[in-house]
Design brief:
The protein is of the alpha+beta class. The chain has one domain: GTP Cyclohydrolase I, domain 2 (2-Layer Sandwich). The protein is about 20% helix and about 30% strand. The chain has two helices and six strands. A four-stranded antiparallel β-sheet has the order 2-3-5-6, with helices on one face. Strand 5 and strand 6 form a beta hairpin. The longest helix has 16 residues. The radius of gyration is 14 Å and the shape is globular. The relative contact order is 0.24.
Amino acid sequence: MSEASRLKTIPNARPHLPTVVEHVLHLPELCPASHNPAPGSTLTLRYVAGERLLELFSLDTYIDAFVGHPVVRDMEFFVQTVAQDAANAAGVEVTATADVRLNLVRQGQRVTVVAVPEGR
């Protein structure tokens, strides 16, 4: 199963009402070598709801699929991938912002990606 196929949506009961949705996900340790991201790291997905909404439980399952991932290894690529997959699933522009605490370095990182649905 691909990671993107884990993302589910639900119908927006009132798509005529302007609705901004923000999901704040607390990131698990994704890299078994560096143990990054460190506890306290978050990923926020923000979008103006259309006909569909991202489903909460599938977001957790989707993010967990990246733990120890063999290809998506750095935070920039991770945020780009999540933003694009979320935009494709919801059918609207999605802004993904990761606020990352890092081990092994004296710095944090903020990565912001804006993605639009592909093939529409």
